[in-house]
Every structure is written in C-alpha cells, then in structure tokens.
Write a structure and sequence with these properties.
Residues 40-112 form the (S)-ureidoglycine aminohydrolase cupin domain. This is (S)-ureidoglycine aminohydrolase cupin domain-containing protein. It holds the Pfam family Cupin_3. The chain is mainly β. It is built from no helices and 9 strands. The protein has strands at 17-19, 26-29, 33-41, 45-52, 55-60, 64-78, 83-87, 91-94, 99-115.
C-alpha cells in the first residue's frame, strides 16, 4: 500500500520518547521532556510535538526549527540578546547558531518542524 500523503500531527499517533536536558546543560529545576516525533525524512527533516516540565537549561542550535506553542509558558533568552516569553498561540523560528537558555515556567507543549 502506498504511503499516505496526509499525516496528522498528534500525541496519539506515535509513542512518546522520554528525555531531559544533558546534565552539563542543566541550569535549574528537574525538567523532563516528552517528544512525539511523528515525521522523520531523509535529509534531516523532523516534525512532531515536544513537551517539557518546568526547569531551565542551555540550548545550542545547529539546526533550523519552527515552533508553535500549544500550551504553557516559557522564556527563551539568546546569549547577548533579549529574553522572550512565549505562550500558547506564539510561533517562531530558531536559526542555526542560536545559543542561550530555555526556561519552562509552566509545562510547555509545542509543535515543531526541524531541518538539519
């Protein structure tokens, strides 16, 4: 059977992967991640849903990522730049070379598309 060309993005379509920030990147708290990686394509394209409980850690982006916040509140701060609070309904792109921190104030869930 041919692969379907329409793919719904949701937490009920695949099992969640569990995770956490690398210990050397953790700044505060005990954040836990759940990731529902719904799409993965050759050439480094990924799409799905990610969720984190409260905490703060350093982030370093080598990839390009589009994010759409579904729920919760987080603060993303760029090294040498400003901190931005993101909440449900906000969309943004993190470009390769972004360095800073991600702080989850209220458990945050986002949809993402990543291109390596």
């Amino acid at each position: 059977m041919a692969e379907p060309k329409f793919l719904a993005i949701g937490v009920d379509t695949v099992d969640a992967e569990q995770g956490a920030p690398a210990p050397d990147r953790l700044i505060s708290g005990d954040p836990k991640f759940r990731t529902w990686n719904v799409e993965e394509r050759e050439g480094g394209l990924y799409a799905g849903i990610w969720e984190s409980t409260p905490g703060k850690w350093r982030i370093v982006y080598d990839e390009w990522e589009f994010c759409h916040i579904l729920s919760g509140v987080s603060v993303i701060a760029e090294d040498g730049g400003q901190a931005r609070t993101v909440k449900a309904g906000d969309s943004f792109v993190l470009r390769p070379g972004f360095r800073g921190s991600w702080e989850v104030l209220e458990t945050t869930r986002k949809e993402y598309v990543i291109k390596l």
